[in-house]
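help with this.
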Amino acid sequence: MKGICVMKQVVCFACVLIWLGFALAACNDTPASLYEYADTDPKSDASLDGDTETASDGDSDSPLDGDVPADGDNPLDGDDPTDGDATLQCLRKVSENGFGDPLNMYAYAMAEFNGRLYVGTFNGEGGSFLSLDPSYSEGAEIWAYDGEAWEQVIDNGFERPANVAITTLTVVDDILYAGTANFNTGAEVWMTKNGENWTAASRNGLGNPDNTVIKSAVAYSEALFVGTENRSSGGEVYRIKERQVQLKGSGGLENPTNYSISAMTPYKGFIFVGTTSASGPELYRFTGETFTRILGIGDYQSFPLGHNGISAMTTYDRSMLMVTSNVLSGFGIFTTDDGINIEQLGEDGFGNSRLAYGWTFAHADRYLFLGTFNTGSLLDAFGEGSSVFLSTNGLDFAEMIGPEERWAGPGINNADNYGFPAMSVYGDRFFIGTAQCYHCNGRTGLEIWEVLMDDCL
C-alpha cells in the first residue's frame, strides 16, 4: 500500500511537470530577450502633485438579502432562459480588441465611480505564464464608460509603463484608488476624486520595492487596506488614507511562505484576510491593527490538500464565502457563518479540474457571480474559454457561461477568453470583463460584455 501511494504521488507530480511543459511550449513563443519595457525610468516625485476634485461615492459592497427569485424565474433551474442564440439575447458586447489595443489583454479591475464604470487593464505580451510580468508593455490603461461610450482616462501606466496592470479599483469616501503591478520599482497606488486628475498615493512598492503587485484591496473604517504580493519576504498589508501609508502586517503575516495577501473582505466587524502559499491557504481575522490566524496548516482545521491560495472573498446574507486556487483538481468554494468553521460547496472545480481558480466574486442585487480561470488541457494549454457561475442563495451555483451554455459557451464562445477577472454593477446594469493569454500568439485583446439582466434574470 505504501508503494502504491508513493507511485501515485510520483505520477501526480509528473502530470504537473508535463502540464507545465506543454504550457510553455504552446504559449511562450516570444523570447523574453526581444522586449524591454517601453520606458522604465521612474518619474520624479514632482509628478505626484496635482489637483483633484470631490466626487460621489460609487462603491457598493453591501451583502445581499439572499432572496431567491420566484418559481419560474430562477436561472438556476436548468431551463434555457431564451430561444435561439442565448449569447445574443443574454449578453451584449460593449467593447472588444483591448479598447483598440491588443496589448490590453486583461480587464483586470472594475468599479463604479462618479456616474461611470471604470475598467483597469493589464497591458503586455511575452513573458512567463507563471508570473504577471510580461516581456513588453506600454503600461496599463484605465477606461471609463458612461453607458454609451468609452473614454480613456489613463494611459502608459500613469506615464510609468512599468505599471503593467491596474489590479484593483476601490472606492473609499468619494475617492477612487487604483493599485498596480510593477516589477521594476514596486507596486503603486494612485487616487482620484473626479476620475480625471490622478495623484500617486504611494509608489516604490509602498516603501518596499519587493512588493510587486497590489493583489487585494478593501474599504474599511474610512480607509483603504491593501494586500501585496512579495515573493522575497512574504506579502504585506497596508492602510492608506489618501497619501498617508501605514504598514500593518509584513513577512506574510505569521508565515513568510505566504507570498501573496491575495484576498480580503469585511465581515462581522473585522477584515478577513486570505493568503496564497505553496504550503496552502491561511485565513486571518484583522482588527485594523492586529492579526489572528483562524485557519491554516497546523490549525485544528485547514483547507483540503491541493488548494494553495484564497483567490477571492465576499459576503452573502450572513455568510462569508471564499474561493481558492487549485491547479490539480480545480477551485473550491468554502462558506462560513462564524469565520472559523468552513464548509465546501460542491466539488472541486464544480467537476471541471481545468478551472484552476475562482478569479472574482461580484454582486448584482440578489445575484452573486463568480468568474473563473481555465488552464486548458495538457495538449492545448490555455486553449479553452473559462466559465462564469451564478448563485441566488449563496449555496448553489449554476454555470451560465461555459460548457453548460445557458447564456454562452466557454469564454463567451471564444476559447481565447481564458478567464473572467473583473465584474461590476454599473447603475442597474452588470458588466463582465475578460482576460486573454498574454504569452500566447494570436490573441486579440480583452472584451467587455453586459449581462442583459431584464431579459435573462
